[in-house]
Amino acid sequence: MAGNTSSVLLSQFSQLNPSVFVYKAPEPxxxxxxxxxxxxxxxxxxxxxxxxxxxxxxxKYTPGYIDxxxxxxxxxxxxxFTDFVFGNSASKNLQLxxxxxxxxxxxxxxxxxxxxxxxxxxxxxRLAKLYKxxxxxxxxxxxxxxxxxxxxxxxxxxxxxxxxxxxxxxYLRLPGLSLLYLCLFMLWAVLTVTGGTNTVDRVWKEINxxxxxxxxAIREYIYSKADRLVFWKDVEDHADEAEAKGYQxxxxxxxxxxxxxxxxxxxxxxxxxxxxxxxxxx
Length: 282
Known about the structure:
Blueprint: E1 13-15, E2 20-23, E3 44-51, H1 55-58, H2 62-68, E4 73-79, H3 81-85, H4 90-94, H5 97-105, E5 111-116, H6 117-135, E6 143-147, H7 155-162, H8 170-194, H9 199-206, E7 218-224, H10 232-244, E8 249-254, H11 262-265, H12 267-279
């Protein structure tokens, strides 16, 4: 099984725009793919980051994938709080164009999508909507990993999650927290008065929409009881609903790992789950 290797240097990624980075395997591959899947390893691995994640932290997941599937192309897409606020803007959709171009240029590719937290869930929702609108069909994928996602939202959880993006220096963090509380309070008030649905809860529903996300893609939820930002019961409720709608689901619950910390704290178990999921792809 995959050992703990050093992080892939960011210099090995090509940056296509402010949000999208691509790693292409060297030719010829120096390693053999570790898979027993009927149709071989994934051709493309799409990583959708948690909100505000530093690119170097998300890139730490690439050695595990390179060890398992050294021939795979890895696409890394970052996420930010502004994606939730301006999620339907033309500029935000434009940032996803390179992903759509790669997918359409490889129509027979085997694709594994790996999302993190509500930021990654939101990015998948936007990408799936944009792909369907521009290509007239569902976003292609063979397997979907949901790490620490999806969650429903409360005011306190929203503050704690978005505070991850704020600087640690107190003279910057305190004004940032004040502005964050004000913005969320105003948003909460508007939704309460209008009866609207916040973006996080809308994404929670849409990822289980067979008209948007194909039921042919097998999925695994990796989550933890110790997660303070995404409640484990919300994840299990989402998985149960997915199963009822025809999705093939695996739930892997950790007990003591924090939010998006499962790979770091239980490395072997984590990558064993990823490999086992892909081996189920038909």
